[in-house]
Amino acid sequence: MKKIILYTTLLLSVAAMSGCKKDSYPGGEISPFIALYDLRNIYRGKDVTLTKENMLGSTTITGMVVSDHSGGNLPEGILVVQDKRRLDQLRGIAIPIGAEAASYKPGDSVVISVEGKTLSRVDGMLQLKGVEPASIKKVSSDNPYLAMVVQANRILDNPDQYECILAAIVEGGFDPLPSPGEKLSGDKLVNDGYGNITLHTEAKSEIAGVDAPVLANFYVIPFNKLDGESKLVPQLRMRTKKDLDLLSSVIEIPAVVITGIMSDADGGDGNYEYVQLMATKDIDFSVTPFSVVTTNNAGASAPGGYPANGWATGTQRTYKINLNSGTAKKGTFFYAGGTGKKINGSASTSISTSNWVKAYDYVAKDGEGFGSKTGGWLANSGNACGVAVFDGTTVTVNTKPVDALFISSGGSLYTPTPTPQGYRIPNNDWYRIKHPITKVEQPYYRQGSNTQFLPYPAGQGYFYLLGGEYNLKLGRWTKARTTSTILLSRTSVLTDIEGEGSFRIKE
348 and 381 in one domain? Predict the structure, then answer.
């Protein structure tokens, strides 16, 4: 696995190059190599013979082998090659060459003559047919090769784009959870928080007898099949046992989840900002208290520099209120914030009849434990602000939140030296305390892969509607929270922020 290089890319919408004419200039020479990105674009729904004309003067492909038949789990006789020669876009192709396919190993660099060969979709899989083993030249072996970190929904939405590349599905679990002793053999639905996608394991493969994990990284090659309506349906296949990377991360079910934020109400913000939350179990806050902490990181906020005490830094940087009375039923929304209890500022609809577990006068009062009184509980623009929920009312530099989300990314947020300082994050749908692939510790926002954030809204009155789904039975996020905002008016009502598109838990 050390030879695999993890790869991410911005997916661009680019017109197919095969329909364009190449520019020329005196002395210029057309490359003999056509990128797999361009090669795949030549296929337009029916078999096509490859010529110098439709390949714009090219005759050959070059790429890295990613198929490995030693595990007995890939389609027989199929050599899989990938490259990213065009626009840094990783693309792959299936090449049927019979038993010779098993003689190639991942990391083999090959050059293949393709003039006169045929692009054909066979049972859903785009194949480069007519390639004789003798026309494949192995240039070198044991080279590092790429695996693209990709979310399940992207493969489902664009099956042709991801077919025949080596992909990494990160932090995937099965839906439903496997029974004790259940094996990987057959078809199982893998969920990575972005969608359910089929993982296929051949009954005679070396992988078939492996216990189905609760949580793992899956290195897979997507192959497409056709459903009854001629729609491409991706099917993931691991190559060998080594493509299953078991994770040691503990599944944590947060009792409270952040589901919405009003950070910039219509008119003055004082006591009209609030956070919408959901309980994932019945909670009596007088017995099991929690706390909500917000952070602002404007350049003028004191104390300056990196937050030496993290969420407990206080003064103008962080502000805490306690949730120590009231109740919330499992699966219900509740609210914490200023005393205004209006949906969108002072002149808007009252939502005082909602379950306000805590309405606190942050304009006139210092925070409960730390934080100076303020006219703005959350920032409206500029450097990052954030919200964190803690189990209990004692928050120190080392206390880990049960949930946290950030808006924007600027400011003095994290430094590794001389000692690490920053805002601790939980294991949730956006952040991981330990990198899911390298296993390196990264317990702070802006450290490692913990970079996701909500953008500041375009103006006043926008509510962060954090739609998503947490599955209590699976103990995981099955739909990651979105970053959508909705513009509320003064007459908006509660169903606008608790109705369609809002967060849900599933049992």
Answer: yes
Cis upstream peptide for 178 (omega within 30°)? no
Rounded to 5 degrees, φ, ψ at 372 are -90, 150
Query: Can you read off the two tokens belonging to residue 155?
Result: 């493969």
Q: Is the pLDDT of residue 435 over 70?
A: yes
Q: State whether 156 and 230 are in the same domain.
A: yes
Tell whether 339 and 417 lie within a shared domain. yes
DSSP 113-130: E-TT-EEEEETTEEEEES
Q: Give the whole-angstrom CA distance, residue 254 versus residue 251.
A: 10
pTM: 0.79
Which of 246, 269, 299 is at the close of a domain? 246
Residue 104 token pair: 């190639």
The answer on 73 and 182 residing in a single domain is no
**pLDDT tens sequence across 142-155:** 999 989 999 999 99
What Å distances lie between residue 272 and 260, 339, 460, CA to CA?
14, 7, 12
> Does 268 have pLDDT greater than 80?
yes
Same domain, 228 and 259: no
Phi-psi region of 208 (alpha: psi -120 to 50; beta: other; left: phi over 0): alpha
Tell me if residue 41 falls in helix, strand or coil: helix
**Pick from 110, 116, 101: which is nearest to 61 by CA?**
110
Report the distance separating Cα 170 and Cα 436, nearest Å: 7
Q: What CATH number does the domain containing 236 carry? A: 2.40.50
Domain span at residue 384?
251-507
8 Å CB contact between 431 and 447: no
Same domain, 346 and 238: no
Same domain for 136 and 20, yes or no, is yes
DSSP 439-473: --B--BTTSTT----BPPPSSTTEEEE---EEETT
At 402, list the tokens.
Answer: 């049960």
Length of the chain: 507
Domain count, the chain: 3
